[in-house]
Amino acid sequence: MSAAPERETGVAGRPRDGAAAREPSGWRWLPVTAVVIALDQLVKAWVVAHLTFHGTMRVLPILDLTLTYNKGAAFSFLAGASGWQKWLFAGLAVAVGVGILLWLRRLGGRRQRLLCLSLTLILGGAIGNLIDRLRIGHVIDFVLAHWHSVYFPFAFNVADSAITVGAALLLLDALLESRRPKKENV
């Protein structure tokens, strides 16, 4: 079997044990990315329509919704820069996105479910925030956690949450993979 049909079909290839079944690539998990992007953009649109800038709505005793804008990256890193950071973070999101897509293409969509899920969550979050940067020049943040009068210093959004959960799952996958018995090459 040549490599060309493999590339065209998006199939990761035959398992080493010689089984006839072919495993689909990690691209089969891309609907997760689409759901994250859609949910992120829908919730941001709702927040913008229903809250004023820095207006606050109590959701839970430890959670508020407050509309803020972030021109920087995580934790408002470089938010005070003159505008060049928009293109830096947009370029970084595109590069990471392409890297994740290439990585997913090489993964087994059934065998490496946790890794595929983590990467598609990260990809969805990166694209969700990229859409904001390109469309309006900043990221819409709105979730603000607190305990009584002690507030987390930065608001976040659905995309940020997907990236955080994806990163945690990526670490969990690496930990689980490191504890699996190693197969010897025969």
What can you tell me about this protein's structure?
With 186 residues, this protein is α+β, with helices and mostly antiparallel strands. It has a domain at 22-50 and 95-186. The protein contains five helices and six strands, in the order H-E-E-H-E-E-H-H-E-E-H. The protein has helices at residues 3-9, 30-50, 84-106, 113-136, 158-179; strands spanning 11-13, 23-24, 56-60, 63-70, 139-147, 150-151. A four-stranded antiparallel β-sheet has the order 3-4-5-6. A hairpin with a 2-residue loop joins strand 3 (56-60) and strand 4. Helix 2 runs parallel beside helix 4 (113-136) and helix 4 runs antiparallel to helix 5. The longest helix has 24 residues, at 113-136. The chain is globular, with a radius of gyration of 20 Å.
Structural class computed from helices and strand pairing: alpha+beta
Q: Kindly state the number of beta strands.
A: 6
Largest sheet: 4 strands, antiparallel
What percent of residues are in strands?
15-25%
Q: Order of SSEs, N→C?
A: HEEHEEHHEEH
Lateral arrangement of strands in the main beta sheet: 3-4-5-6
Shape: globular
- What fraction, in percent, of the residue positions are helical? 40-55%
SSE layout:
Elements lengths: L2 H7 L1 E3 L9 E2 L5 H21 L5 E5 L2 E8 L13 H23 L6 H24 L2 E9 L2 E2 L6 H22 L7
Helix pairs in contact: 2-4, 3-4, 4-5
